[in-house]
Amino acid sequence: xxxxxxxxxxxxxxxxxxxxxxxxxxxxxxxxxxxxxxxxxxxxxxxxxxxxxxxxxxxxxxxxxxxxxxxxxxxxxxxxxxxxxxxxxxxxxxxxxxxxxxxxxxxxxxxxxxxxxxxxxxxxxxxxxxxxxxxxxxxxxxxxxxxxxxxxxxxxxxxxxxxxxxxxxxxxxxxxxxxxxxxxxxxxxxxxxxxxxxxxxxxxxxxxxxxxxxxxxxxxxxxxxxxxxxxxxxxxxxxxxxxxxxxxxxxxxxxxxxxxxxxxxxxxxxxxxxxxxxxxxxxxxxxxxxxxxxxxxxxxxxxxx
Length: 305
Ligand SMILES: Cc1ncc(COP(=O)(O)O)c(C=O)c1O
What we know:
- By secondary structure, the protein is α+β, with helices and mostly antiparallel strands.
- Helices cover about 30% and strands about 30% of the residues.
- Strands 8, 9, 10, 11, 12, 13, 14, 15 and 16 form a 9-stranded mixed sheet that branches.
- The structure holds pyridoxal-5'-phosphate.
């Protein structure tokens, strides 16, 4: 990670290396906290955060789901994120990471007596699954881990604890020589990647699962809207693992992953085994939107002046 200058903590900017917490920080022990991931792109009109309002809303919704009361409003949080981008004066694209966590002051599993803290960090960050991955596609493994089932955990919350599931799936995939994991739900249907939503293309139709067992992804929503604009039919329905093997194309979407083609799943080559035509079109259209080159979606960008 590239160090930046400052991090916003509970209302003020502190130097990057001084943004520390006590070892008895509640979230560190029991995993209840919520976070977001946003990208800020260097557009021709300066830095712009992509879908700041929607990400901030999801942060507050995540907190509501896990019973954490955030001491800041939506607009205060949006302003604070803009302040972080401004203060750090990034030369390249950056990633913004707000975190609502339970601080020092109470121990034990019961969390309501712990103080609620908020931090916002940002740093320069390139392609999450590699520049080559964006062009050639990545090799993916179906995970042996089931996506956190809705009976046990809250998939609509971007909650810290949920990411133990993602982390183990990612670790398994990498240690087996793959680049990313694809998790199924309890019924064997595709749920999502460790940090991405999932799409296939069959006979020109774009298919992506409903968000029953996945995060309500902002990139997935963006790509669906962009695809419809381009005249594609988009279906929201369940996908089985074997349907992926015989798909023409497959790709992941996410704030970090952007639109990343999938070249194979479980060593079955998908389509031509490289970025497909539909994926390329969507990827280019997505980059046009995030870099402010498509005026139809300029409302998704918050410019930092
Ligand atoms: C588990 C999971 N699913 C999906 C996504 C994609 O969501 P978004 O497009 O809002 O970044 C993410 C990333 O935030 C994620 O962590």
